């Protein structure tokens, strides 16, 4: 009987948070990843079983997944790992979840829709901060305005900092264009050149357009054809984003990326418990229709990595339930509804003018 949860990439910063929370909430996941020593060390600490394998080794992957019902994939950058894990899940009829925020990964997961249906599994990328809160807010706004033709989202954080995995993923994307969805199609744009003043209700901040995952996923959740996402960043960073348009070929050079990644790895793996406890996140959203009528709302949220662990574990628990029957490619809000994010501690919704 396939009744196991496997967490792959358990020894990364976010993977550790997820593994510890899963254990705390009464789950008994199999911990996994490439680094057998690190995986076993964490498994021994938590009193859990473990298995180490390389995703490129099909036989080892199949042996590891033979009794697994759900895989929670936490090993990024997902642009390099997700396809192999999805293929392993398809072969072994295991539901696939991951915590990516990468547009290319969401689009790749979407292409597996028919194969997933045939295998009787669900493929759901983005079960963490990318993209659960934004996906739920997008659907909430769509419910308020069913004829919406444009969606804009904005992110803002107070406190906290990036993990190694997130920083490395950003580094791998250096020199690449930003992205929006225009008339239903994902379209490349120049980084740093599109900004917007965002009114969060309690403060106004300038956000710069970024290639956030909802450029992909919010379209599948809401059918809204025009989507932009902004992130509140310092003015100096916006200037750097603009500069990247001119030095893109240099930023894409492998030795440049490797040097940046080595510097990232020399720093702490991610925010401390204290930093996460004190930090806060905000997601703002606006929909408009052809008449120019607008609806706006905002989510107040815990720190991003804390929220990622909470949403990822909860979604894994629900998919592990014997009554779960969703198959094919899905987004979080399309399965669990727009109110799902509001079930978590520290989350509140505010309708804005």
Describe this structure in words.
This protein has 353 residues and is an alpha/beta fold. The protein folds into 2 domains: 4-128 and 306-335, Rossmann fold, CATH 3.40.50; 132-303, 2-Layer Sandwich (Dihydrodipicolinate Reductase, domain 2). Helix content is 42%, strand content 25%. It has helices spanning 13-24, 36-46, 58-65, 78-92, 103-111, 113-119, 132-144, 164-172, 214-222, 235-244, 248-251, 254-265, 273-278, 304-320, 332-336; strands at residues 4-8, 30-33, 50-52, 68-73, 95-98, 122-124, 150-158, 178-182, 185-189, 195-199, 204-209, 226-232, 280-288, 294-302, 328-329, 348-352. It has a 7-stranded parallel beta sheet, sandwiched between helices. The protein has a 7-stranded mixed beta sheet with strand order 10-11-12-7-13-14-16. The longest helix has 17 residues, at 304-320. The termini are far apart.
């Amino acid at each position: 009987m396939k009744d196991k949860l496997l967490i792959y990439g358990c020894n990364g910063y976010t993977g550790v948070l997820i593994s510890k929370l899963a254990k705390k909430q009464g789950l008994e996941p199999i911990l996994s990843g490439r680094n057998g020593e690190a995986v076993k060390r964490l498994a021994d600490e938590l009193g859990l079983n473990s298995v180490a394998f390389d995703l490129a080794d099909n036989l080892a992957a199949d042996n590891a997944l033979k009794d697994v019902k759900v895989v929670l994939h936490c090993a990024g950058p997902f642009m390099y790992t997700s396809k192999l894990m999805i293929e392993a899940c398809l072969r072994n009829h295991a539901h696939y979840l991951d915590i990516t925020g990468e547009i290319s990964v969401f689009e790749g997961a979407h292409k597996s829709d028919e194969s997933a249906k045939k295998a009787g599994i669900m493929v759901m990328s983005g079960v963490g901060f990318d993209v659960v809160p934004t996906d739920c807010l997008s659907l909430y706004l769509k419910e308020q305005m069913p004829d919406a033709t444009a969606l804009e989202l904005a992110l803002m954080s107070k406190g906290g900092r990036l993990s190694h995995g997130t920083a490395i993923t950003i580094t791998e994307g250096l020199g690449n264009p930003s992205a929006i969805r225009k008339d239903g199609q994902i379209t490349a744009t120049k980084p740093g050149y599109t900004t917007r003043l965002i009114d969060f209700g309690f403060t106004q901040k300038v956000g710069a357009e970024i290639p956030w995952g909802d450029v992909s996923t919010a379209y599948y959740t809401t059918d809204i054809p025009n989507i932009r996402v902004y992130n509140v960043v310092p003015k100096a960073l916006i200037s750097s984003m603009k500069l990247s348009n001119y030095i893109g070929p240099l930023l894409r050079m492998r030795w440049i990326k490797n040097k940046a990644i080595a510097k990232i790895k020399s720093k702490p793996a991610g925010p401390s418990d204290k930093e996460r406890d004190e930090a806060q996140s905000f997601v703002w959203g606006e929909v408009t229709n052809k008449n120019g009528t607008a609806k706006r709302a905002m989510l107040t949220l815990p720190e991003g990595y804390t929220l990622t662990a909470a949403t990822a574990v909860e979604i894994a628990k629900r998919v592990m339930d014997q009554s779960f029957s969703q198959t094919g490619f899905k987004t979080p809000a399309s399965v669990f509804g727009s109110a799902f994010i509001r079930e978590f501690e520290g989350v509140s919704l505010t309708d804005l003018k």
